[in-house]
Amino acid sequence: MAPTSDFGRKFAELTWVFLILSCPTLAAAEPPQNKPATVREWVSGASDSLVENYRWFHTNPELSFQEEHTASQLAELLAAEGYQVTPGIGGHGLVALLNNGDGPTIMFRTDLDALPVTENTELVYASQKKVTLADGTTSGVMHACGHDIHMTNALGVARYMAHHKDQWQGTLMILGQPAEEKGAGAKAMLEDGLFERFPKPDYALALHVDPTMPVGTVGFRAGYAMANVDSVDIILKGKGGHGAYPHMTVDPIVQAAQLVMDLQTIVSREIAPSEPAVVTVGAIHGGTKHNVIGESCHLQLTVRSYGEETRKQLLDAIRRKANAVAESYRAEKPEITVKEGTPSLFNDQKLTGSVVETLRRTLGDDHVVPVDPSMGGEDFSRYGLAGVPIFMFRLGAVDARRLARYEQLGQKPPSLHSPLFYPDAEEALQTSVTASVAALLDLFGNKTDQP
Q1: DSSP H helical segments within 235-278, as ranges?
Q2: DSSP states of 32-94 as a string?
Q3: Is the Cβ–Cβ distance between 303 and 279 less than 8 Å?
Q4: 208 known member of a binding site
Q5: Are residues 177 and 78 in the same domain?
Q6: Residue 291: strand, helix, or coil
Q7: 298 annotated as ligand-binding
Q8: 209-256: per-residue pLDDT in tens?
Q9: Do 117 and 196 belong to one domain?
Q10: Both 70 and 158 in a single domain?
Q11: 290 is in an annotated binding site
Q12: What single-letter DSSP state applies at residue 181?
């Protein structure tokens, strides 16, 4: 019989509450509260799809300015997420825009091209592609510099931002850039009207894999992070003749030998010890036979620096020393050709500080580490010279156990551009997409404590 008094009703209600709390079956029947997934949880759920995308990019590499199918694949995947995609910028470059109300415009750049390297990783999805180079030789093609990770990361970022438009406002620009390996793609896109035809970004971000850092970590450097890259060709002139009668000749190979040694004193004796600089003679071509003194000798140099003043000092010194050697041998003045390549990459100090704070909050202080500047080149720098604050961070790409094994064996891990280099893709992408999304959300104004 149901209770009819107030006391009876209250007693029945308390009894029912006690039964729910004490009975696991009844307690479990209560519907769970839906909690939005964190960025990290979302990336974990998207991992299988991203790894599949990564393997396609890895298996189908294309050389600089030949990235037709790579760009088409990336454009198709971005368009499927709702991005307005414009292909054919500066070659096979593409711009993908996602407009989401008022707010800043932020660019996230990925490079598209691979290298003429024959892959030797023995991965089941290793590149088998072969091409004929301009000199008639045949080479394999490989993403030996990690651009396949870069593209997959940009795709993961693009998907998250498209699926979570309630978390940010502004315009996201995903930039697919050709020919980074030639140091020419950014220039080609800018000359094709990149920032006239599309919104000029308020900020630009990018990342680059690092084969010496463990997955789960990222590295940063404010200010100069990568170098000016210049190429110098020197043709020393001689007077040919018989190797048995050198007194009747002007020997260009002896000139070259002296010049190689003289060039080494530029950095050691003319540049301040605190200023990084490199002058490397990468190739010498001269002569045809044991007993013939030739007419010329060709030297090919790479020259690295950071500041513009040091760059000019190095190039002026190379010209001076080459001319001095020729004069000392009574030789004709040498031909000196300087090809100014990729400018040094300067990470905007304020932007770097802001993003690093976000990365530390997202990944933990121990997983965000300062790194040394590199004498390598990166044409992401050109967007900074175009007036956009830029920041490129490094991404740990190799499992810590693999790195420990290399150390145990007394070996260095395979470097970028090595036929043996490969990243631990799934783990690297988990970190890269999580970090990149967190950085973008903060720059768009959504401060997240638990990405």
Answers
A1: 252-270
A2: PPP-PPPHHHHHHHHHHHHHHHHHHHHHS---TT--HHHHHHHHHHHHTTT-EEEEEETTTEE
A3: yes
A4: yes
A5: yes
A6: coil
A7: no
A8: 999 999 999 999 999 999 999 999 999 999 999 999 999 999 999 999
A9: yes
A10: yes
A11: no
A12: T
Same structural domain, 236 and 222: no
Which of 340, 375, 392 terminates a domain? The answer is: 340
417 is in an annotated binding site: yes
Strands (E), 190-342: 203-214, 218-220, 223-226, 228-237, 241-242, 278-286, 292-293, 296-305, 335-340
Does residue 6 belong to any structural domain of this protein?
Answer: no
CA pair distance 72, 94, nearest whole angstrom: 9
Tokens representing residue 405 in the block: 């094994």
Q: 85 and 161: one domain?
A: yes
Going 395 to 401 to 407 to 411, the CA torsion angle's sign is: negative
Same domain membership, residue 233 and residue 223: no
Boundary-marking domain end, from 322, 340, 358: 340
422 — phi, psi (to 5°)?
A: -150, 145
**237 and 320 share one domain:** yes
Separation CA 32–CA 257 (nearest Å): 78
For the ranges 31-35, 180-184, 269-273, 307-311, the lowest mean pLDDT is seen at 31-35
Residues 205 and 232 in one domain: no
Strand locations in 368-446 (E): 368-370, 390-398
For residue 289, what is the domain's CATH number? Answer: 3.30.70.360
Contact 228, 379 (CB under 8 A): no
Task: Tell me 450's DSSP state.
Answer: -
Q: How far is it, in rounded angstroms, from Cα 79 to Cα 300?
A: 44
pLDDT in tens, 42-73: 999 999 999 999 999 999 999 999 999 999 99
